[in-house]
Structure formats: structure tokens, C-alpha cells
Amino acid sequence: MNTYKEIKKYIDAELALIKRPVTKDIRHIAHKVYLAIDKDLTHVIDLCGQLLKTEKWHYKTIAFDIIFKVKKQYTKQTFDVFESWLLTYIHDWGDCDDFCTHAFGYLLMIYPDLFPRILTWKDHPNFAVRRATAVILIYAIRENRYEDFDILLISNLLMHDEHYLVLKGYGWMLKVLSQKEPITVYDYLVKNHHQMPRVAYRYALEKLPKDKKNALMRL
To answer: What single string gives the DSSP state of each residue in 143-206?
Structure first.
């Protein structure tokens, strides 16, 4: 089962057995598809690209799941493919977070010198692409491999974005960072509390120690 038509037919048959599929069901199907396909990166990229073209959430979820499973094969050139997917097929926060906190986040983590390339996303007309500028760093932060990334620069660049989901995105990034570097995030929030939108501010302080969280809430 290696051609797109064969795989899509299999996926459709699996979906037909589920009355109201949820994400857990879709990931289970993705796992079965992964076991049955040629796992060469070039083949998987081609397959996932065709699944993404459908613009249907279950196919897209399967694509993001499968491409993450072959992460050990990523090269620097994979960034070009992933960026094209981001700019073409990511339209909402769910797809953005699924793709960027797994496959794309892992890719950036292992090739940190590509960090400057994500800075151009901050001005993209699609809010989901701008959100990606922040959430793509979450994987590296969680893995304690973020020393080559200027996390606070991203917050500064997105500080006053017009879309609340972008504000929540960089707030989330800061919240994850606060679990690694609470003093850094605390000091940043103290410095910027007058100008930082409240929705991002509240996201960022959520996981700080209680005393620091309470102090920030009073500002």
C-alpha cells in the first residue's frame, strides 16, 4: 500500500467505520497507515503533501502525524518543504499547533541555524503563520535545547499582534519557558506589563511559582 490512491482508499474505509471520528481515532488510523507504507522521507513527503491538498482535517492530521514519525530523516532542505506547507495549508490554530509543536518544531530544534528564517513569518497576513513564529519553539524549549534561540525576541516581535490567537501563541511559548527559566520570564513580564496585551500576559504567568504569579497579577 504505497500509492496515494491506495492509501486514501484505506483511510476512507477506516473512517467509514467510525460514526464521529475524533483526533484519537485519526491518530490511530495514521499509525496503521505508517506501518504499511514505504518510510523513505521523499516518499512520505510526497504522500503527506497530497493528503494536505485535500484541505480536510482528518487527512491533514494523518499527514502531520506520519511526517513526524520519520523525523530522524529530516535534513536542512526539509525546512523548505515544511515552510511551503505552513504557508499553503495552515489556516487555523489547530493545524498550526499540531504541525509546529511536533514535526516542524523538531526540525528547527535540530537545525537551530535556521532560526532567522522564521522571523519573516511575523508579518504574514495569515494569523496562523504568525502564531507559528512562537509555537514552533515550544518543542525545543520542552526538550531543553533552546539555547541558540532568542525566545524573548519572538515575544517582542509579536507583542502587539492584532489577532488574539497570536497573542495566546507567544503567551503559551513564554509559559513553557517559565517552567525552565522562571526568573527570566518573571523579569520579562515585570518589564513589559504596561504594554503587553493582557491575554498574552495571563498565559505567560500561569505556570510561575505562586508568589511570583500573585505579584504579577497585582501589576
So the answer is: TT--TTS-HHHHHHHHTT-SSHHHHHHHHHHHHHHHTT-HHHHHHHHHHHTTTS-HHHHHHHHT
pLDDT digits (tens, 9 = 90+) for 110-154: 999 999 999 999 999 999 999 999 999 999 999 999 999 999 999
**Residue the block writes with cell 494569523:** 127
Give how far the C-alpha of residue 131 lies from the chain's centroid of Cα atoms, to the nearest Å: 9
Q: Could you tell me the pLDDT band of residue 2, with boundaries at 50, 70 and 90?
A: confident
Cβ within 8 Å of residue 117, ≥6 positions away: 79, 83
Q: How far is Cα 53 from Cα 117, in angstroms, rounded to an integer? A: 24
Span 90-104, pLDDT tens digits: 999 999 999 999 999
Q: Does the pTM of the predicted model rise above 0.90?
A: yes
What distance in Å separates the CA atoms of residue 118 and residue 136, rounded to the nearest whole number?
Answer: 9
